[in-house]
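Researcher: We're teaching a course module on how sequence relates to structure. For the next exercise, students receive a sequence and then see the predicted structure as tokens, so they can try to spot secondary structure elements on their own. Here is the exercise chain.
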Amino acid sequence: MAKGTMREREVKALLSERLRAEGFRLLDVRYRSRRGIDIEASHPRSPQKLYIEVKGERRGGNPTIMRRRALGEALLQVFEAYGDDEAVYAIALQDTRGFRSLVARIFPALKAFGLHVIFVGNGTFAHLGPNSPTPIPQPVSSLQRALRP
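Model: And here is the predicted structure for the students to work with:
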């Protein structure tokens, strides 16, 4: 799990760097001023596009409420982007005990919708996907393998 608070921009930067290192082509990475899904990517070995909504920890206010709000916003962005049946949709969150706990509570729904969740730490990545047997995120060595539909 990540030590300290990572803002959305930091989570996005770490994830983008990792995707590039694994050969993904980043079609679009949106920062603050642009609405829509945060990361659109493709991989030369896969016909599917990848859409990822990213959320980090927020400062100010009750941390539990702030995490719930961030996760709700991420789900809304992903559902608004839905439309490509061949695409892979994911949410990326800072790897914290609070986010892991929230995701575990909605794990059956995430599986039913076929959503992937990537937990981003300081140089570490864990994954939950539609085929995950339990709500416990597993460390991943390859996001490309983990994010298969």
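Model: If you want an answer key for the exercise: The chain has a mean pLDDT of 91. The first strand starts at residue 25 and ends at 29.
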